[in-house]
């Protein structure tokens, strides 16, 4: 029976561009999705520091804000939203998930980093916030009494004119 190398298959089967980092911040491996999306070759990527690639910096992150340090300290995953430039120079929002790979002693041997492009979702959230602020300003600045209620009649919002009129 042919030996099945499931670790490599698993790594390459991940849905998102993914890196494996050593605890010293060195990039140990990258899946093909990462190499293709960010236009790297393994030769140009492996051995470099994560902050050089993920943050385009020459110095490591401050320890208090470094997700890798958080994983090393607490041995638990963490994630964060990062606004950055994509390969084409356009503004991109990425959800970056840092997860520990623990050894038999429970210590962090490696850190797996998955990058998910959430630009469309984030831009919709921003647009929704702007629309809500616009509507709030219209309601607040209207001289007419305005009440906003749900389908059960529960008042959700009321402007100052409505407060004066209805008490």
Q: Would you write up a description of this structure?
A:
The model has no long low-confidence stretch (mean pLDDT 91). 37% of the residues lie in helices and 27% in strands. The longest helix is centred in the C-terminal third of the chain and has 23 residues, at 119-141. β6 (147-149) and β7 form a beta hairpin. The strands form two sheets. It has a five-stranded antiparallel sheet, sandwiched between helices. A two-stranded antiparallel ribbon has the order 6-7. With 167 residues, it is of the alpha+beta class. It folds into two domains: 6-117, PAS domain (Beta-Lactamase, 2-Layer Sandwich); 122-166, no CATH class. The chain has helices at residues 6-13, 32-37, 42-45, 50-54, 67-74, 119-141, 160-166, and strands at 18-21, 27-30, 78-85, 91-102, 108-117, 147-149, 155-158. Residues 77-130 form the PAC domain. InterPro entries: PAS, PAS-assoc_C, PAS-like_dom_sf, PAS_4. It comes from marine sediment metagenome. This is PAS domain-containing protein. Residues 131-167 form the PAS domain.
